[in-house]
Structure formats: structure tokens, C-alpha cells
Write a structure and sequence with these properties.
The strands form 3 sheets. The protein has an 8-stranded parallel barrel with strand order 1-2-3-4-5-7-12-14, surrounded by 5 helices. It is globular. About 40% of the residues lie in helices and about 15% in strands.
């Protein structure tokens, strides 16, 4: 149970910004030597070049063409310009970068007998470039980009995808031995929610609760099998690296102190946080979590199937995770709700157009005094602190934590006459969230790194190109990179950490 937080405005105004900035500069000196200071990317959102060198289609390619709103080419052209971006990373104080391997650059159909040599060569060259500039790669095997051939057969709802994923993972573990930090699947809950509950990722199901919970479970099984495979291979082949998962956590608070709102928040947390965290780090679903999940399933005439051997696989993997990547963007406030499910997704930045009401769970509500982005995401740094404290106390097997995504999607202005993009709102956002990371660390939570989302402006799955997150501004017509104020500030923090160490 999460306690209702103190309700207050969390974004500083221009008068207090400088004071908060200096406070953070002073406090980051407390960070240990080797603290990871990075930025995050994803293959499909940055690479472009979706049709080169035999690359197969993902679940997005035909879907985006049919939608006709925007396309992932050239995105940020990272496929061709990765050295420029990695050099900029090093120049601005980053010592790490999150990237993902595009599954279909290696196996175009997901389960091909032989890998594509050109794709394998590309990622070796990318990782060598990271080494050249002293930027450590943290590599995800799957970041929302299932091969179309597997997606068309049910994606994660089909155990064939799980088997194919494990074979792909084994190839990568053995081939890319220069990689020492692996993540299995990015944001398991976001994928399930967006595909089957919210309906803004293909196949666009709305409140298909059976598929929503089943895909979570099957992704967990795939994660556990990959972790167990890696750890077993490491014992015999001495891979010498680490493996873990990345998941986004969006803590739910009750809108009021009423028992009904508290229960609604508990239901939301069970579906969107506890189910995956239990499976990954307890190795089973706790009785409390299962009770809440079963209540949601009954309300929606939904079912969950657990196959023979699944829970043994989760139990074996739970203590073998080497790290946990926590993505945090926002919190939510939940009120009790007795009606049918309905939602409206804000994919355009038209503020105030979101709506989410989940039968058997609750409804999201705005809270006075808590700001939101143009995409209706609540800006609530306290939620990151509360989440860190909660998971640290709840999961004895929880390994070292990295904040693997945290950032502000914003309608950034164009570069000024000096080629600098003003984004003080992003500086405020990171400033306040890092303050909460430092507070949790001071109270014993083992956070050893922070990755801003994102390194450069990128293609955003259901939002296109107007929602900018990057430290580096990209003119998508010319692909020219510009420096944002946040990148200069990020470097200042990095320099302060380096001086202290």
C-alpha cells in the first residue's frame, strides 16, 4: 500500500531554479566513484534505415504506413550517425549509453536459421565505437520491436515468440562478448498495456484484459529464461557480464483518503507494478498481488494461464538478476470507478485530452497543484523517491538499481542564433528527480546510475516527432545536431562528479 503523498507543486519557478541547481551540484559530489551517468536510446526510435542490409519488418512497419501519420525513417539516422552521437555523448560528460539491438537486423523473421552478417557487423562496430570514446554500452535485446513474422502469430501471447527470443538472446550473448551489461526486455508492462489495454500500439486492443495479463506473464517467462541462460553460459563460457530487466514503474496514489480510492490504487499498483516485480524478484506472485489480480480478472471475465514449469523458471531466475533498470516518468492518482472501461490517448500534445477508466480497477484523475506535460503526464518527482523506497523494502532479491529512463517530453523551441536550444523545463525536471535519487541513496537505496531519456531527439512510437526528449536537438529535415542547454547542464553535473572523485 502506498500512502497518499503530500500534495504540492513540484516544478520550481525561475526564481528558485538557480538555488535548486546549486544544491544539486553540491550534492552530486556525494556520488560514488564509478556512478553511471548516461543517456538512453532505442534502435527503432533512432536508427532509421529500416529497409537496408536485409533487415526484416517489425510489428510497426506496415502499421505506421497504414496509419499515415509519420514514419520511422530516417528517425535520428543513428544507424549511420552513431559515431557523431557517441562522440557528443563523451564530450558532454556521459560515461554510458543505453542502446538496443534490432532483433530483425540479426534475424529478419525472428527465428531464422542463420543471422544476417551485415547486422552482426553493424553492432560490433557500434560497440567498438562506444569503447573508442569511453562510453559503456548497456544493451537491451527487445525494445518494443517484435519481428513482424512473430507478431503476426500472436507476439508474446504465442509461446513460439518466447522460444525464438531465447534463441536470439543466446546468439547475442555468445556473439557480442564485448557487451558486459545486458537487459532482457524493455518495459514489459508498457508493451502489454499499450498493445492490449490502452490500445495505442499494434494490435490496438482496448481493455483486452486476458491478453494484457497473459502477455505480462509470458514476457516474464522470456525474461527469466534469458537470465537463466546467461548465468548458465557464464558458468561454462565465462561471459563476464551482468544481466537484468528494465521496467517502467508508475506508482498509483489514492485520489482521496477514502477506502474505495485506496483499494482502487492498490488494484492499479497490482496490475501495473507488483505483478511483474513479484515475478521477477520474488520468483512467484505473492498472495496479496494474486488476490488483487484475480479481482480484476473476475471483473473483466478474463483469465491467466500459467504453464507447467513457468513458476520454477521464475523462481530460479529471481536471485540471479544482476541489476534492475527502473524507468520513471510520472505517477498517477486513482479514484474508485464502477463503470465500463474507456480511454482517450493523447498522442498529439493537445493538453487535457487524456482519459483512462479501467473497469474493475479505477479511473485516473488530475490533482490540483501537480503540473502536467502537454501529453498529460503528471510531473511528480516524489513518486520516484517513493518507488525507490517501496521496491527496496519489498523485494529482498532486488539487485543494484539503475535509473534507466527519466526525462521530459516537451515541445522544444528551435535553436537560437548561436545554435543552442533553450530547455530550462528539462533542466528543472532532471534537477528535481535527481534530488529524489540522491535522497533515496542517502537512506540506503542502492542506486548506481542515471540515464536520461533520451540522448537525442527521436521518433516517439505513438507521438511521432513533436515530442522531444533529447539532450541534443535534431533538425529531422537535415539531421543536423544542436546542443540544448540541458546537455551543457548535464555536463556540468558530470564534471562536478568527476572533480569530487
Amino acid at each position: 500500500t502506498r500512502e497518499p503523498p503530500e500534495r504540492k507543486r513540484t516544478i520550481s519557478n525561475s526564481e528558485t531554479r538557480g538555488c535548486m541547481h546549486m544544491s544539486l551540484l553540491n550534492r552530486v559530489q556525494q556520488l560514488p566513484k564509478g556512478f553511471v551517468w548516461g543517456a538512453a536510446t532505442a534502435a527503432y526510435q533512432t536508427e532509421g534505415s529500416t529497409k537496408v542490409a536485409g533487415k526484416g519488418k517489425t510489428m510497426w512497419d506496415d502499421y505506421l504506413v497504414a496509419q499515415g501519420r509519420f514514419l520511422p525513417d530516417p528517425a535520428s539516422d543513428f544507424y549511420n550517425r552513431y559515431e557523431e552521437d557517441i562522440r557528443l555523448s563523451a564530450e558532454h560528460g556521459l560515461n554510458a549509453i543505453r542502446v538496443s539491438i534490432a532483433w530483425t537486423r540479426i534475424f529478419p523473421n525472428g527465428d531464422d536459421a542463420e543471422p544476417l552478417a551485415e547486422g552482426v557487423k553493424h553492432y560490433h562496430e557500434l560497440f567498438a565505437c562506444c569503447k573508442k570514446y569511453g562510453v559503456e554500452p548497456y544493451v537491451s535485446l527487445h525494445h518494443f520491436d517484435s519481428p513482424a513474422a512473430l507478431f503476426n502469430q500472436g507476439d508474446w501471447l504465442n509461446r513460439k515468440t518466447v522460444d525464438a527470443y531465447v534463441r536470439y538472446a543466446e546468439f547475442c550473448f555468445r556473439e557480442f562478448r564485448e557487451v558486459k551489461n545486458w537487459f532482457t526486455i524493455n518495459e514489459l508492462i508498457s508493451l502489454s498495456h499499450s498493445q492490449y489495454i490502452q490500445g495505442n500500439f499494434p494490435p490496438n486492443h482496448h481493455f483486452d484484459v486476458t491478453s494484457g495479463i497473459q502477455s505480462q506473464h509470458n514476457e516474464l517467462v522470456a525474461h527469466a529464461r534469458a537470465v537463466n541462460l546467461y548465468k548458465d553460459l557464464d558458468e561454462t563460457e565465462h561471459l563476464g557480464g551482468r544481466i537484468g530487466m528494465v521496467n517502467v514503474l508508475t506508482p498509483a496514489y489514492p485520489a482521496t483518503d477514502s477506502p474505495a480510492d485506496q483499494h482502487a490504487a492498490d488494484l492499479y499498483n497490482a496490475f501495473y507494478t507488483d505483478f511483474i516485480m513479484d515475478g521477477a524478484f520474488l520468483g512467484h506472485y505473492s498472495a496479496h498481488t494474486l488476490s488483487l489480480i484475480n479481482e480484476i480478472l473476475r471483473a473483466n471475465n478474463a483469465t491467466l494461464t500459467v504453464e507447467d514449469g513457468d513458476m520454477e523458471e521464475l523462481a530460479k531466475a529471481a536471485p540471479r538478476n544482476d541489476m534492475f533498470g527502473l524507468n520513471y516518468y510520472q505517477s498517477t492518482f486513482i479514484a474508485a470507478y464502477d463503470g465500463e472501461s474507456t480511454n482517450s490517448f493523447n498522442g498529439t500534445g493537445d493538453k487535457g485530452t487524456s482519459c483512462f477508466k479501467f473497469k474493475g480497477v479505477g479511473q485516473q484523475v488530475d490533482m490540483p497543484g501537480i503540473p502536467t506535460t502537454d501529453w498529460d503526464w503528471l510531473i511528480y518527482p516524489q513518486g520516484l523517491y517513493d518507488t525507490l523506497k517501496h521496491i527496496s523494502a519489498t523485494y529482498p532479491n532486488l539487485p543494484v538499481i539503475y535509473i534507466t529512463e527519466n526525462g521530459l517530453g516537451h515541445k522544444d523551441p528551435e535553436p537560437d542564433a548561436n545554435g543552442i536550444v533553450a530547455d530550462p523545463e528539462r533542466i528543472d525536471f532532471v534537477d528535481q528527480h535527481m534530488e529524489k535519487v540522491l535522497q533515496a541513496r542517502a537512506e540506503g537505496v542502492d542506486v548506481q546510475g542515471y540515464f536520461i531519456w533520451s540522448l537525442q531527439d527521436q521518433f516517439s512510437w505513438a507521438n511521432g516527432y513533436d515530442k522531444r526528449y533529447g539532450l541534443f536537438y535534431i533538425d529531422f529535415d537535415t539531421q543536423k545536431r544542436y546542443i540544448k542547454q540541458s546537455a551543457l547542464w548535464y555536463k556540468e553535473l558530470a564534471d562536478t562528479m568527476a572533480d569530487a572523485q
